[in-house]
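Tokens for chain A. Residues wanted.
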């Protein structure tokens, strides 16, 4: 049982509140990542077909990212509003926000599952599939999509558990699913000889276990706010607020989907299936290495939102400073790991000599100046936490849609070949990350009232 006052973020040291949220969140997100990363590790080492199967899984990334985008739209939009309402001691409004998000997640999950399933063949070829890689992408995706409602509800509602001061329960959501996935993956993939289909089945069953855990929490005594039937009917003003604040997370994930499509299609032309597989590995390593900084900023969000709602602006400023320093320090260390151990990182996912050689070169290019990513994460988190959705949306679009996607197409044509695809990412991190953080510092941090307890204009 967690401490009774753990949900009051105006008490105690700010940095301790952020760390108390961030550590279990990071562990939870790391475990969540295991859902897909473990699949890729096992599949990449399948005898004879591992490299091509890994390429096929990579082709399914954009669609799974699109599903995540809608999850972030509602979950990341609703959770800060939920935390602000709780900070203002308005639990009735908080419960209404929770109910709206449950309905939005459920309806969208059903629609996405149907649409993606019906159009998966033309979409996968649009994403850069060849006849050889399509077989593996389709085998994985048509089963994975069946778990869409479970994935969206478990992930989208977990932020509401954390915003009530129960990050360890939120961590349990993903620990349960990932532990089950770790057990089921080798059983279905190798034991039953089901290959990529077995990986997808294991993932769906794990997601089902996670959503049951989440729903049991909201039905139990630990939850301060509950899912009530009268709050499930959509209310336009609340939906508008949720969508407005969640749009930045949606665009970040949506533009990730766009970039993945552009990268795969460009690499298919300039490097073939081998480099599409290399990009699958790079995306996997990026997800692993960026996860702690994402956990830090995600842990800071409910603390910043709660104190903002309680008009404790000195604590908001202190939280922003701490989050920025911790995020920057971690990403510098992560970049050093990439420089020192590229072979180890790539070999986790493949034993193919050609992919190992190409992957190490690409990894160093792709992660150059990785610490700039921390500035993007911190800026986005602050804009979202303190209800500045327009600026959050703008900088989401700037980095991915305006900078990295065009560069991914342009640089290979300027004589850089496949290298141009991998250099587009660090260039966008530097320009987009610095622009986002500097704007947040000048237009938000410095405008917070000098005194607590007054209205923020």
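Reply:
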């Amino acid at each position: 049982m967690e401490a009774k006052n753990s949900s009051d973020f105006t008490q105690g040291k700010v940095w301790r509140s952020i760390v108390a949220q961030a550590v279990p969140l990071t562990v939870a997100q790391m475990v969540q990542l295991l859902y897909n990363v473990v699949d890729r590790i096992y599949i990449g080492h399948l005898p004879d077909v591992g490299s091509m199967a890994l390429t096929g899984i990579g082709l399914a990334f954009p669609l799974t990212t699109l599903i995540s985008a809608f999850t972030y739209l509602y979950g990341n939009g609703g959770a800060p509003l939920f935390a602000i309402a709780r900070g203002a001691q308005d639990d009735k409004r908080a419960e209404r926000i929770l109910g709206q998000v449950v309905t939005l997640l459920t309806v969208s999950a059903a629609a996405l599952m149907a649409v993606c399933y019906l159009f998966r063949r033309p979409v996968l070829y649009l994403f850069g599939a060849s006849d050889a890689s399509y077989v593996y992408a389709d085998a994985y995706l048509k089963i994975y999509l069946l778990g869409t409602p479970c994935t969206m509800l478990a992930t989208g509602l977990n932020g509401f558990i954390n915003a009530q001061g129960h990050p360890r329960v939120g961590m349990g959501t993903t620990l349960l699913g990932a532990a089950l996935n770790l057990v089921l993956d080798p059983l279905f993939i190798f034991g039953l000889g089901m290959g990529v289909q077995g990986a997808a089945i294991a993932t769906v069953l794990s997601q089902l276990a996670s959503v049951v855990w989440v729903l049991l929490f909201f039905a139990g005594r630990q939850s301060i706010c509950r899912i009530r039937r009268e709050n499930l009917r959509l209310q336009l003003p609340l939906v508008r607020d949720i969508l407005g604040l969640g749009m930045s997370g949606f665009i970040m994930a949506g533009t990730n989907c766009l970039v993945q499509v552009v990268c795969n299609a460009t690499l298919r032309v300039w490097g073939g299936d081998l480099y599409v597989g290399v990009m699958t590995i790079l995306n996997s390593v990026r997800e692993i290495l960026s996860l702690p900084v994402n956990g830090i900023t995600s842990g800071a969000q409910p603390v910043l939102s709660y104190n903002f709602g309680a008009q404790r602006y000195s604590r908001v400023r202190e939280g922003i400073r701490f989050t920025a320093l911790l995020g920057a320090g971690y990403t510098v260390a992560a970049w050093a790991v990439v420089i020192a151990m590229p072979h180890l990182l790539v070999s986790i996912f493949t034993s193919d000599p050609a992919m190992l050689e190409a992957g190490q070169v690409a990894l160093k290019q792709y992660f150059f100046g990785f610490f700039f990513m921390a500035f993007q994460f911190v800026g986005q988190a602050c804009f979202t936490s303190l209800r500045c959705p327009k600026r959050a949306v703008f900088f989401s679009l700037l980095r991915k849609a305006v900078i990295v996607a065009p560069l991914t197409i342009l640089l290979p044509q300027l004589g850089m070949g496949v290298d141009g695809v991998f250099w587009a990412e660090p260039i966008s991190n530097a320009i987009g990350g610095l622009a986002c953080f500097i704007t947040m510092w000048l237009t938000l941090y410095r405008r917070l009232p000098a005194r607590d307890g007054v209205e923020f204009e």
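The first helix runs from residue 14 to 44. Confidence is low (pLDDT under 50) at residues 1-5.
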